[in-house]
Amino acid sequence: MFYPSIFVKDNLSFESHSYGFSGQSKTTSVSTSSTPSSPPPASKLQSSKSGLVNDISLSFDKESNSNSNYVAALKEWAIVCKAAEDGNQVLLFRKGGIMEYRNGFELKHKNFFLFPTFEHQSMESIREEYKKELENLTKQHEQKDLNLTVPNDSQIFPDTTTINSFVEISYFNEINDINKLEKLEKFHIWNLDYVKMRFNYNPKKPLFLVLLRTYKLKDAIKIHNKPEWSGCKSWIQIDLKDKALEAYFKNDLSQSFEYLKSISIPSIDDGTFNNITEEIRGIV
Question: Is residue 16 part of a domain?
Fold first, then answer.
């Protein structure tokens, strides 16, 4: 059985999901087994400068519980989502979007959907071998826009986004040395110039590395877009009452994601992902 570890820095907290964490000291393990464990006592997760968890009683803020009617999705380039689904991307680098400039990026969830976006995708920012794939995705997206239908009331039919995958975070840490980025290049599809630019953007805020395990959904989920999801923000909240989610989500988000894992296919097998995790932790 594969058991990744998660380390969270800079007083970031996870929202209202029962995570099934277990541990005894500063290191907290996350079980990926299909049987969810009982939720731990409520508290806010704190961390030390070393990146190891100080407080293993992980769970929920009062503020987090107020969002229990929603499931999280992280906006990311469509080409990156596709690469993650194909097993070619296991890392994200985040500082936060323009609308999050002051506080920076916050890691709020252990499990979340990848929400593909075509905003700000750049051919110049990805490695050569993925440019053709980006071109194909862009053409498909443009064709979809051309095929928008107009119903009898003459209002444009709401646009939709197709979600093909969700992820589970297995490691999280700060990148404090720009030279480490070159050693991590094979774990993502961006080129080195782009990730260095991300490192130098808003220099008062650290660049965070997020190691994720991607699961491809058996059946894609089509979500109707909302105006409040537009713009440069990292997280969006999808209403659990959305008809597209009814088959997957009931009352307990953690159990729902466990169910999703049981009917989904991991992009990378357990043994390979375990080796990748150890190599990345050794670099960081």
Answer: no
Task: Report the CATH number that the domain containing residue 92 is assigned in CATH.
Answer: 2.30.130.30
Strand partners for 29: 5, 22
127: containing domain: 21-283
Q: How many CB atoms lie within 10 A of CB 56?
A: 17
Count CB atoms within 10 A of the CB of residue 209.
22
How far apart are alpha carbons 110 and 44 in whole angstroms?
14
**Could you tell me the two tokens for 138?**
């862009």
Q: State the pTM of this model.
A: 0.71
What is the tally of structural domains in the chain? Answer: 1
Structure tokens that stand for 58 in this block = 């992980």
Residue 205: closest CA among 168, 167, 171, 234? 234
Q: Which residues share a beta bridge with 173?
A: 209
Task: Say which residue, 155 or 57, is predicted with more confidence.
Answer: 155
Closest CA to 94 of 195, 237, 215: 195
Question: Residue 190's beta-bridge partner residues?
Answer: 126
Residue 23 pLDDT = 30
